[in-house]
Amino acid sequence: MRGEIHIGFLYQMMKRSKIKELLKSPPFGKEVLVKGWVRTKRGNRNIAFIALNDGSTINNIQIVVDTASFDDNLLKEISTGACIAVEGMLAESPGKGQNVEIQARKIEIYGKCDAETYPLQKKGHSMEFLREIAHLRFRTNTFGAVFRIRHAMAFAIHKYFNDRGFYYLHTPIITGSDCEGAGEMFHVTTLDLKNVPIDTDGEIDFSNDFFGKETNLTVSGQLEGELGALSLGEIYTFGPTFRAENSNTPRHLAEFWMIEPEMAFYDLNDNMDLAEDFLKYLIAYALENCTEDLQFLNDMIDRDLLGRLRFVLDNEFVRINYTEAVNILTTSGRKWEFPVGFGRDLQAEHERYLVETHFKRPVIITDYPKEIKAFYMKQNDDGRTVRAMDVLFPGIGEIIGGSQREEDYDKLKNRITELKLPEKDLWWYLDTRKFGTAPHSGFGLGFERMILFMTGMSNIRDVIPFPRTPKNAEF
RNA sequence: UCCUCAGUAGCUCAGUCGGUUAGAGCACCUGACUGUUAAUCAGGGGGUCCUAGGUUCAAGUCCUAGCUGGGGAGCCA
């Protein structure tokens, strides 16, 4: 073989280029090899144009085929959705619409794609239809953009925290405590569901279950996250979370991802500062690193997307306490479907009014009545409110929920007793207040809700690859 | 879970007052066209009208129940 030039050998050795690389500062005249999926093919008897996409960018590269040089049957098999490898010369494109094209010299078909049964077409599809073919929807421009942005945001989250000395802590997905207080949980068991053991009280006997006790999928990593923060200083979790609520809305999933930073020595103001800085960092990261995908979504999905992202980035969040929020709502002159008043939780219509009508920007509401918030939130001296904070975003509603945590052992224990929570399951949580307690704070960011905001998509089922919702666990 | 709207070709939809053989655009197939840009032009094939009952001489159309999906609400991130 030495010294011998063999076409097949050359082809084997040529390194595959990603389309993203070829489209920027293209080395015209160079022989290249690309591999990807056909988006469209058009042309006439003499020439064919293939738009090829390999996922590295939303943009396609144009493959120009001189039909006389290729077998008719091969060309027929290059239909929308087919996967091919193309070797050819990279050239400046004489046509309008693209600067670069590849003049094909050799084409190999990896996977044919029957045009009659392939569900994706060149034209637009409804989101509802694409959701039914979630295994193929990655191949559309919209979902390619959404999932590239989703990746970029996941990466940026880790970078943000790592750069600031936070440690990524893996809290358990299976939990033995059902007192996290965030809704219905999914049971985890190896018991035979057709023959569940019953104890003498008529209750399910979990002693022979896998863990020897009742277990569930976690609804939050917060309580365990606090344990880490009270030694490591600043930690964050980023993992899946499960809620067995029968929620059928465009903003809820039964399985979703959540980011939960937890910081020792942070008070509520530090917590708010972090939340605002964090969200703005993510927006800035997307604007800088996902430019083309965001532009596409702005053009095709939501005309106001880029403007809204820049607006949120450039403006300070409003910070008001719950009592001030209630005053604004009661003096607004509006008629509310749900009543407003101290002690009542803010409804969607109230939050929307504050964010979208009154302030017209993100709002952080703090110091809610203790009755409508979780047991672990730090109690204020007024005896009626807690150091909670909700970050409300336009179009999304609550994107972050957090608080300063109650670090006083007695106050925390009393609250647990008041709410009749199972203290025996929380002994380890209380221990951290008994042994070297510290003021600390944290919050939870719903990852998919953030992706909704970042992409302009309107249904949360379209920003997670395979959504789990009531009555739906396909794929 | 509640309220509401919808379900007709592969997709998006039209279908009159209940009336006899259910349509369009796109997609697909065939052909034409020397560089296309959601290519264009001509022709062709393609239907469990969501399911089950019911009313009627006659139901895609009206009634009842259910299923699925969208939107709104609640729960929440």
What does this structure look like?
The protein is built from 14 helices and 16 strands. The strands form 3 sheets. The chain has an 8-stranded mixed β-sheet, sandwiched between helices. Strand 4 and strand 5 (100-111) form a beta hairpin. With 475 residues, the protein is an alpha+beta fold. Mean pLDDT is 92; it is low at 1-7. The two termini are 48 Å apart. Helix 5 (141-163) crosses helix 14 (447-455). The chain binds one RNA strand of 77 nucleotides through strand 1, strand 2, helix 4, strand 11 and strand 15.
Please provide a brief summary of the model:
By secondary structure, this protein is an alpha+beta fold. The chain is built from 14 helices and 16 strands. A hairpin with a 7-residue loop joins strand 4 (83-92) and strand 5 (100-111).
Helix content: 25-40%
Mean pLDDT: 92
**What is the global morphology?**
elongated
Query: How many E-type strands?
Result: 16
Q: Structural class, please?
A: alpha+beta
Count of helix runs = 14
Low-confidence segments: 1-7
